[in-house]
Design a protein that fits this description.
The strands form 4 sheets. Strands 10, 15, 16, 17, 18, 19, 20, 23 and 24 form a 9-stranded mixed beta sheet that branches. The protein starts with a strand and ends in a 5-residue tail after the last strand. The chain has about 475 residues and is an alpha+beta fold. The protein is built from 11 helices and 24 strands.
């Protein structure tokens, strides 16, 4: 059988087809024509650029912009720009030596857009146009409006920044006619003591625990006994916080103090910009300076690691029914991740319904328990794969393996640790099992209804991070999506 490829998006949160992007080839880009902001015909087109373009091609697109977030302050006429003047007025007045710094560094975009590949495609205002909608990323959230509202947005931007608009849902405010703000960076800084929930003992009877891939040792900081250091829970405590979290996720910063003037701060984040989403962690080593302002300083080493990551995506639209005779089955294959440029062993489990009890096991006992459930229901051990994607009738679950990153002589380590939103399934795997051919029609319907996909939720996960100071002091912490008590 001629090999065919079906694919559907998981973490990008919109199922996508292989439509050609107008700006996918470098020769199609007129580099002599500078534009105010990059424009993409659709979200699929933008995702194709993020996932399929080489770094060189993506840089060529970035060079089309008159100004970018990586432009130096000295090269910009900030005072005459109605948006930049609002974003950077206070910063320019309070921070010395800003002339040769980039907007990305000066404007806190390192925190707002940790993924520099994404940041490179935005103009100096933090804007991009996708599907006829302009998105502008700022500390208050992601503004969005139709292109015809540009003048109204520019005129009123300063008032929009402090305005509380009419709330149209738990995360979105209407600020004016056709102008909205999505609360991308809803966050809390924890000043209280670490939260250390009790870990339950797994009920091992009847469970088979496979062995997930052992992450490579990238740093001696990875081998610390993290049980001896603070552990924080990233979940909400109030009923309103839980409602917000159930829809969106939770972004919360935590500090580890070496002294009154030195600390490191970490965040386990999940950012939804509406046209793209990121999940990852950031750790920064900081010193308190004049007026109590914290600034980044080089540490001897910074380590960020993660594990037990489970994502959940609802399948919206008309109820989907699996073909009656189609068995639950598993496909295991090697896949090239276009974003990370690395091969991955990926398992696709199709037609499996996971109950809330099954998912609670992942939250309570770790990914091993969920992998055990999959083995008991499918009959295959998928624990040795780099990634596992489970597609059921109403939900898709993505299981991401443990890994880590460490750098020396840096002030920050930022890692967006899940990129490629696409599962590639070869049709040759569907040719033999009875009834499996019906999956073609089912998957085709998913692709057709991709625009109905909602935000994906982070069900569970943990981050371990540590800093070694120039003097040799070591601090560490864990940030978890909570275990069940």
């Amino acid at each position: 059988m001629k090999k065919g490829i079906l694919f559907f998006a998981v973490l990008a949160f919109f199922f996508s087809s292989c439509e050609k992007v107008a700006l996918t080839q470098a020769e199609e880009v007129d580099l002599s024509e500078k534009v105010d902001r990059l424009s993409f015909d659709s979200k699929e087109a933008f995702r194709s650029v993020m996932l399929e373009m080489s770094d060189a091609e993506r840089n060529a697109l970035s060079h089309r912009l008159k100004t970018t977030l990586f432009s130096e302050v000295s090269s910009l006429n900030i005072e005459d720009d109605p948006v930049l003047s609002c974003d950077f007025r206070d910063v320019l007045q309070t921070k010395a030596g800003t002339r040769f710094k980039s907007l990305y560094e000066l404007g806190n975009y390192e925190d707002l857009i940790p993924d520099e590949k994404l940041a490179a495609l935005l103009n100096a205002r933090g804007e991009i146009e996708v599907g006829g909608i302009i998105y502008k990323i700022a500390e208050e959230g992601t503004y969005y409006y139709a292109k015809k509202r540009v003048d109204a947005f520019n005129r009123n931007y300063e008032s929009f920044r402090s305005m509380k608009g009419s709330r149209i849902d738990i995360m979105t405010e209407k600020l004016g006619d056709g102008i909205f703000r999505y609360d991308t960076f809803r966050t809390d800084r924890a000043e209280d003591t670490p939260e250390v929930p009790l870990s339950p003992q797994p009920e091992t009877k009847g469970l088979y625990y496979g062995q997930p891939p052992t992450p490579a040792i990238v740093s001696q900081l990875q081998l610390l006994d993290y049980g001896q250091y603070p552990r924080y829970c990233s979940d909400a405590k109030t009923w309103l916080g839980n409602i917000i979290q159930s829809i969106f996720g939770r972004n919360k910063s935590f500090d580890y103090s070496f002294s009154d003037d030195w600390r490191f701060t970490s965040k386990f984040y999940y950012y939804d910009y509406l046209f793209w989403e990121s999940i990852g962690a950031v750790t920064k080593y900081q010193k308190k300076g004049f007026l109590g302002i914290w600034s980044q300083k080089p540490a001897k080493e910074i380590y960020v690691g993660w594990g037990d990551i489970v994502l959940e995506t609802d399948i919206k639209g008309n109820p989907l029914e699996f073909p009656k005779n189609a068995p639950v089955f598993c496909v295991q294959d090697k896949q090239y991740n276009k974003y990370t440029k690395a091969d991955e062993d990926v398992a696709y489990v199709l037609g499996l319904y996971l109950s809330q009890e099954d998912i609670d096991k992942a939250v309570g006992y770790g990914v091993k328990a969920l992998l055990s459930t999959i083995k008991s229901k499918v009959g295959q051990d998928v624990s040795g794969n780099d990634k596992v994607c489970v597609v059921g009738p109403r939900k898709i679950y993505t299981i991401i393996p443990a890994s880590g990153k460490a750098n020396t002589d840096v002030s920050k380590v930022s890692e967006t640790f899940y990129f490629d939103p696409t599962i590639y399934v070869s049709s040759e795997y569907f040719s033999l099992p009875s009834g499996v051919g019906g999956f073609f029609a089912w998957l085709a319907k998913i692709v057709k209804d991709y625009l109905d996909m909602p935000n994906t939720r982070l069900v569970s996960g943990s981050v371990q991070t540590a800093v070694k100071t120039p003097e040799g002091k070591i601090g560490a912490m864990s940030i978890i999506k909570p275990e069940k008590k």
